[in-house]
Design goal:
Elements: H1 7-21, H2 27-46, H3 50-76
Helix pairs in contact: 1-2, 1-3
Length: 96
């Protein structure tokens, strides 16, 4: 049986998945993957069985690879920003 991943490697994977999730240009995809990442790692954090932690970690590593590819495709075909997203205010002529 393999050793379970350390807390540092789990935290590093969590940060990578959050960074990749936030790189989606589409608001709906971005928010969904951020929520899904947080739920997944909450589940890993609450798990006490080392075999189950290892299985969840390896599944998350595979999910990260898929997430990276999906984010690239989403950035290529990104659309308009939605009204719920933070947008820079439009400057009018004469504003300083």
């Amino acid at each position: 049986m393999a050793n379970p991943p350390s807390a540092k490697t789990i935290l590093s994977l969590y940060a990578s998945m959050l960074r990749t999730s936030r790189s989606f240009s589409s608001y709906n995809f971005r928010e969904y993957f951020v929520r899904k990442t947080k739920m997944t790692f909450r589940e890993i954090q609450n798990e006490e069985d080392p075999a189950k932690v290892s299985a969840l970690y390896s599944q998350s590593v595979a999910d990260l690879a898929v997430l990276k590819r999906s984010a690239i495709v989403n950035q290529l075909y990104g659309g308009w920003k939605l009204a719920v997203e933070n947008q820079k205010p439009r400057r009018e002529r004469g504003d300083t």
